[in-house]
Amino acid sequence: MRWTYKPAPDPETTAALAESLGIDPLIAGLLVQRGIEDYEQARLFFRPQLDHLHDPFLMKDMDLATARIESALRDGERILVYGDYDVDGTTAVSLMVAYLESEYPNVASYIPDRYLEGYGISFRGIDFAEDNEFQLIIALDCGIKAVEQVTYAQSKGIDFIICDHHRPGETLPPAVAVLDPKRPDCTYPYTDLCGCGVGFKLIQALQQRKGLPVESLRPYLDLVAVAIAADIVPITGENRVLTHYGLQVINEDPRPGLKALMQDIQRVRYQVSDLVFQLAPRLNAAGRLRHGEQAVQLLTERDWEQARRYALEIESLNEERKGLDQQITEEALSIIREKGEESDMSTVVYRDTWHKGVIGIVASRLMETYYRPTLVFTRSGDKLAASARSVRGFDVYQALEACADTIEQFGGHTYAAGLTLEAGKYEEFKKRFEAVVSETLLPEHRLPQVQIDMPIHLGEITPKLWRILKEFAPFGPGNSSPVFASGPLKERGYVRTVGGNGAHLKVSVTQDGSGPIAGIGFGLGSRREKVENGAPFWAAYSLDENTWQGKTSLQLKIRDIQSEAPQASFSK
Fold it and tell me: Class assignment of domain 56-313?
């Protein structure tokens, strides 16, 4: 693993901030690294407020969107809320449906069938709207490139409002309003909202038109927090404020559907990581294996008993998903070995029997093995469909653009994308993608990276430091839990491996008489020999709490172990 260090914070700025806040220079340095350089910025960081959210009408077309919805409500029109089948999409649809239904009966939801319709707005969905006399469709987390589909809807007298956060194409759909902070002519101050976040800005605008404060929308923020976490968008700016309050709702008074789902997880207090690794996979399981509408049913259900029944169904689907995920990953690894592709610059694998709903997860699993851009294909009707995942520093979306003449359609982000192509073009695409990656993937991209905020001595770790670091939360992209490096460390003789096949490493470490502090290294069981018998070592880690038998103690969550002091390289 490659260690990179964030640039050291400016000493003068750090000293001034430490003095103005009355805090340790270590804490001040961590804040400066996050762009927080004065008292006011620190106040906003540590005390996020809902009134810090931007005026929703700063978003292009928001006035048109609210006017069209108000007109629909006034005239008694039927409104169809349409969204993607992933967590961002289903939470966004649930949010909009729940909000509109609180005062208006003529609302329904529509999640496209992953297998029959695929991603985004479908002609089948528009036909459904026509057959059921819907005059307005509000699309969430999709639609920014649906020019043909929205034109088709126009021909049937159906209006569209698009709420999306993906990159637009050259032409915007002819919708009544297109809300997307990434459209070139939108000057909205924050561009990293998820799809559910854009949906929230729309209901914030509607609420504002009624003269009601944003605080009145607090009960909807549990959905927004789950979406932000699941979609791996930066937890900065507005997203940080929304996640902060969303976690409060989740921990204090979640909606029945989430509460029912949480009953099988049993966390003392939910953090962003719990949303990512516990709630999101369960909600995703519905759209992956059956139908995303099940997630919407769960999230909009008000009756506890019914919500619990929905949650148990989704829990069962998630267990089925886990089995498929493991089976297909093993098959994919076997294909790579059989074809002698272990040393390729990319991973591209295909089997027509693989379940479309889990190929994204499998792509992530293969990344863990070979750490290179990865695509997993399966058959989808008469086409092939794939999920793509990428390594840090490599834009897989751009790589797909370079292969566009072999692809039928694609979309996504820097590190995750989806695509379809004709079956006969698979081998051509595979060769082309490997060539593009070979030309553009830098050597440093092939090594997993741990980014370190700063080196510290073990003696600097105190309960007070941990107390303040917890105030840095919620953690996520753009505001990661601080990672430290210390060494040389020594193990006190309590080292052991735990978990299946000794996968994880437990240690108790000291440094120059400081400590001992317990540590856990997930997936680092093979490094045991590096720390045994008093051998000095260096560790990269974040701080965490461990609760065991009712007692909570501070521990190191170890990211990597090196036998020698790693050479410092600085991230840009």
Answer: alpha beta
